[in-house]
Design brief:
The protein is of the alpha+beta class. It is built from four helices and 13 strands. The protein has one domain: Beta Barrel (M1 Pyruvate Kinase, Domain 3).
């Protein structure tokens, strides 16, 4: 398993239809060693702390394996083929992982990097900002249907992290998986 991207973003105002919203969705890649603190990565911000950030949602990880799926979904939705580039961080993630999907992690599992440890806490729930960033109005629904949500991490042991590092998965108590928790949260929203 490998860390193929580390991304940071500052909160900024963007136009979303008729509204101006604050978002830190557009994360930019960094090749530098990045400090990992209890509340996240140094240099990264969250715009809406009621749903992002905090100790349980300090870092957001997303599998690189799904990027082709989102590029194809954008083309199928009529997004211009000249605007089909989705660099790492386009899905709002801090960490782009290779070799680890949501179906392979459980709440409490630990990702051990050479200089820090992160614990799996929650699935990401799609929001309306996701539709705007991906470029079509059904993106959040497609994330909910596919289960390609990524997952949040708490900082177990602060330190540093850098793109290109390998990491290992240390199993936790294995009581609830990320897909199970994602489906349970999704079912509550449908009621």
């Amino acid at each position: 398993m490998k860390l193929v991207g580390v991304q940071l973003g500052a909160a900024r105002r963007v136009r979303m239809g008729e509204r101006s919203i604050l978002t830190a969705f557009n994360k930019q890649s960094t090749q530098a060693s990045t400090v990992v603190m209890p509340l996240g990565l140094m240099g990264d911000e969250q715009a809406d702390l009621s749903v992002h950030g905090g100790l349980e949602k300090a870092v957001y990880a997303y599998p690189s394996e799904y990027y082709a799926f989102w590029q194809n979904a954008r083309l199928d939705a009529g997004v211009s083929p000249f605007d089909d580039s989705l660099p790492h961080g386009s899905l709002g993630e801090n960490l782009t992982l290779s070799g680890l999907l949501e179906t392979q992690v459980w709440v409490g599992d630990m990702l051990r990097f050479p200089n820090c440890e992160l614990t799996v806490t929650l699935p990401r729930e799609p929001c309306g900002k996701f539709n705007a960033v991906i470029g079509f109005s059904q993106a959040s629904r497609l994330m909910a249907q596919s289960g390609f949500c990524g997952f949040y991490l708490a900082v177990e042991a602060p330190g540093t992290i850098q793109s290109g590092q390998s990491f290992e998965l240390l199993p936790g108590p294995r009581r609830v998986s990320i897909p199970q928790l994602f489906q349970a949260k999704r079912s509550r929203h449908l009621r």
